[in-house]
Specification:
alpha/beta, single chain, Rossmann fold, four-stranded parallel sheet, 264 residues
């Protein structure tokens, strides 16, 4: 397959040329700043480019959604950040937003409407699964034929937004060896970093949440923990290191697994 140059279009540049992309790809704080999650951003951009999707990013104009501020109880900061984003969206006439972070997805979809902003918000797994159903994205199990995968449900995708089917549908196209942890779907156990927990010290207890969840993943004997959230990726990667199991099990985002399958 021919290697295609990856060009990430910026909304302001397209707008200046009188062009309007179909989708805004909201990268998110982790996707833009965290070294590990930058790899997920790159993987998804490669897939969007492979699919020839009309999209753009805000680049330097992108700020935080305000989700961590609201979860931490700083409502004023949340509204300041949200209203600033809403004004930028109005400027570029943005109607469709694709996110790779469940926290960004949830707040755009379920909480921004309270501020008068209503968009078509699409989680990247919904988007990718739809592309597969429409025949635009054909995945081959051969690339991951010897890989056993277990999937961790992010709270803000699963319990908050009922997105259980799409990630599993995609993973079944990638591998015939999918195993579930004992607690999954609506009964899944949190990674331990949602609700602004990422930014505070652990509370007293016998065991940290991410250790409990990592142990559940290890019990499946899977080679790969598939995740779909930057917080989940950080916590489970830390758990794998804590358990000294880096050589036994790896943590990849579903976008990364798709990119591997397509050799992008």
């Amino acid at each position: 397959m021919e290697v295609r140059k990856i060009d990430v279009p910026v909304m302001a540049d397209l707008y200046a040329r009188g062009q309007k992309p179909e989708y805004l790809f909201w990268v998110g704080c982790a996707g833009a700043i965290d070294d590990r999650y930058k790899k997920v951003t790159r993987a998804f951009v490669k897939i969007l480019t492979f699919l020839d999707v009309s999209f753009a990013v805000l680049g330097k104009e992108e700020s935080c959604t305000g989700d961590p501020a609201r979860r931490a109880g700083n409502e004023m900061l949340y509204q300041m950040q949200a209203l600033q984003n809403i004004e930028i969206f109005k400027q570029y006439q943005i109607n469709k937003i694709i996110t790779i972070c469940p926290h960004c997805y949830n707040i755009f979809k379920n909480e921004y409407p309270d501020l008068g902003a209503d968009y078509e918000v699409i989680n990247y797994l919904q988007f990718l699964d739809q592309c597969i159903l429409e025949g635009k994205l054909n995945l081959d199990q051969k690339a991951l034929k010897n890989v056993t995968i277990t999937y961790h449900d992010p709270c803000y995708l699963g319990r908050a937004n009922d997105i259980y089917f799409q990630p599993r549908s995609i993973l079944k196209k990638l591998s015939s060896n999918i195993v579930e942890m004992n607690r999954n779907r609506s009964f899944a156990f949190c990674c331990g970093a949602g609700g602004a927990q990422m930014f505070k010290e652990a509370e007293k207890g016998n065991k940290e949440v991410f250790i409990e969840r990592t142990e559940e993943a290890l019990k499946t004997k899977a080679n790969v923990i598939a995740t779909a959230c930057p917080f989940c990726m950080t916590m489970l990667t830390d758990g794998i290191k804590y358990k000294n199991k880096e050589e036994v099990i790896k943590n990849f985002d579903i976008a990364e697994l798709i990119a591997q399958s397509l050799n992008l």
